[in-house]
């Protein structure tokens, strides 16, 4: 699985610490981790939490990433932005228990973490435990086990609802503020990672036009 990390401007200083926690858990499991920034508080390619949502949607809809780890100060803005887009199911995760239940019950493909609120001494340990529980088993396994069938049914219903209530991503990108979208896709390593892993020709073409 390809896992993408995205940080917005208010928590960019924590990027390297978050990246190392994620890598320490995900890579021994056989996953690949791609750090899309922001890479530091001084990174010239600034991202807002709205742009986190745009970038997450481009990565997930194109197949360039299978899972996105993002967040902001509270995690709420990033979650709302991500869930504004098709084929992105983002949960707000504060604890390892949240991570496990979101994975097993909701089977999403993105989480938003509060990287400032209640993030104090031992914060990096909580992150590590979150990632361990998020990826410890294939998603959608259900909890408790007797609830597996209705939970999987509800997930399919939600996917069907989102397919009706959202338009194709290429249409959405064409109508958003071009500078907002270009800013979301202009990180230092975006082109390197995205074009090497994109699986959707239409989205790739749209991104190339946006980037000029």
What does this protein structure show overall?
With about 210 residues, the chain is an alpha/beta fold. Helices cover about 50% and strands about 10% of the residues. The chain has a five-stranded parallel sheet, with helices on both faces. Strand 4, helix 4 and strand 5 form a beta-alpha-beta unit. The mean pLDDT is about 95.
Tell me about the biggest sheet?
A: 5 strands, parallel
Q: Per the principal axes of the C-alpha atoms, what is the gross shape?
A: globular
Low-confidence stretches: none
* Backbone CA Rg: 16 Å
Output the number of helix runs. Answer: 10
Distance between the termini: 29 Å
Percent helix, as a range, is 40-55%
Q: From N to C, what is the helix and strand string? A: EHEHEHEHEHHHHHH
Strand content of the residues, in percent? 5-15%
Structure summary, number of beta strands: 5
The order of strands across the largest sheet is 2-1-3-5-4
Structural class: alpha/beta
* Rounded mean pLDDT score: 97
């Amino acid at each position: 699985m390809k896992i993408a990390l995205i940080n917005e401007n208010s928590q960019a200083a924590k990027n390297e610490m978050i990246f190392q926690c994620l890598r320490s858990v995900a890579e021994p499991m056989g996953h690949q981790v791609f750090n899309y920034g922001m890479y530091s508080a001084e990174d010239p390619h600034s991202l807002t939490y709205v742009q986190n949502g745009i970038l997450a949607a481009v990565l997930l809809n194109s197949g360039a990433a299978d899972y996105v780890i993002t967040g902001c100060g509270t995690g709420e803005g990033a979650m709302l932005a991500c869930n504004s887009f098709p084929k992105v199911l983002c949960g707000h995760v504060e604890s390892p228990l949240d991570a496990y239940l979101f994975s097993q019950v909701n089977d999403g493909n993105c989480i938003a973490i509060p990287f400032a609120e209640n993030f104090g001494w031992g914060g990096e340990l909580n992150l590590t435990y979150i990632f361990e529980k998020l990826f410890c088993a294939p998603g959608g396994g259900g909890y408790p086990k007797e609830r597996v069938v209705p939970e999987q049914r509800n997930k399919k219903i939600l996917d069907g609802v989102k397919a009706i209530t959202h338009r194709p991503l290429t249409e959405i990108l064409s109508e958003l503020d071009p500078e907002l979208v270009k800013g979301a896709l202009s990180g230092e390593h975006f082109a390197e990672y995205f074009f090497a892993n994109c699986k959707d020709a239409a989205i790739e073409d749209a991104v190339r036009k946006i980037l000029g």
